[in-house]
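Supplementary Note 3. Input sequence used for the single-chain structure prediction.
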Amino acid sequence: MEEPATTVPHEHHRHHRRKKAWQLRKIALAIALSAVLFGSGVVTGRYSNKSTIAVSTNGSSLNYASVDEVYGLLKTDFDGTLDKNKLIEGLKSGLVSAAGDPYTKYFNPDEARDFNDQLSGSIIGIGAELGPSGSDIVVVAPLSGSPAEKAGLKPKDVVVGVDGKSTAGLSIDTVVKKIRGKENTNVTLTLVRNGGNAFNVTITRQKITVPSVKWQEDGAIGYMKINQFTDDTDKLSQQAAEEFKNKDVKAIVLDLRGNPGGYITGAINLSSLWLDPGKVVVQEKRGGKIIDVQKSTGDNPLKGIPTIVLIDGGSASASEITAGALKDNGAATLLGQKSFGKGSVQQVEHLLDGSELKVTIARWYTPAGKNIDKQGISPDVTVTISDADAKAGKDPQKDKAYQILQSQL
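The predicted structure, written as discrete structure tokens, is reproduced below.
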């Protein structure tokens, strides 16, 4: 999408001290294209009490002497006017970019506001998640009911151009900014699908408000669709579970297809609907060592109910945590296609001037110890959806899930 879509609430900010990481952990997909997200685990941060970075020449700090030298020469020799604020912003942005991690980003105050707006689940854009794939920028998934979905965008489509200009060498943030714009205006994407010829798709930007959870009962089978993990996911999924229980459903289909992720707490609480308290949902490791373990909590109204989880190439981050937790704990069967493969956790540090630093702090692993980063999670039952199926409005993955569950009733 355009940089993750989920607001970091102010009540979660840390003021001059760090709370326990598990209380703050969030996963978000950087909502990049006006509704286009690229996977990224996020932990809310604290307000910094430092407005500058101390300069030191010892071994533990950076030596800024060469930076001062460059600035001195620029100030002396440059034929033009220098904006010191822009120079400082460029210095900070370049410093963070040099870390070489696609999910570690510096946001100036305006970008930080956009980032948080996108995290709220309501943005103006085309409604598709974007993510890095090698040197390419690809569609993770179009959001359900979005302009991108209606225009026919598919997971793994490579975005090679925006409004006739190549995206080669551009960052996801830059591409996102090019795709975003005013409501009811058009943007033209140039895409490459499955290594074929490039083609153009023109999409009208709209305000995207994504419902977090939808559910229904189909006879004895309950169907729950999680579009992304936002503030209301816990409440709505609990409501769906209670309704399933009250109506005595005998089996459940949990649909995580095209779900780019969101708050990690949402994945933990959703998994807890099936798991006994204290079961491992996800492990976090830094440098190969476990630094945190998230476990299931609360009641488990759906425990023991036969469940199939639908996943595909658009299932990322918190979706993969949920799928991995239910699979490894023997609570569900996975059906569909391999997931996206986003397995890092980011922490957001809020700075006094309104800017933010989103930094990768760990990698997450399934309860069985599998790191899915860049690998994805493979389904137990592989079922694909062809272009012909999609055009005809058919859903062989969902149909197969229902067929398997009905045979068990």
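The longest strand covers residues 356-365. DSSP finds eleven helices and 23 strands in the chain.
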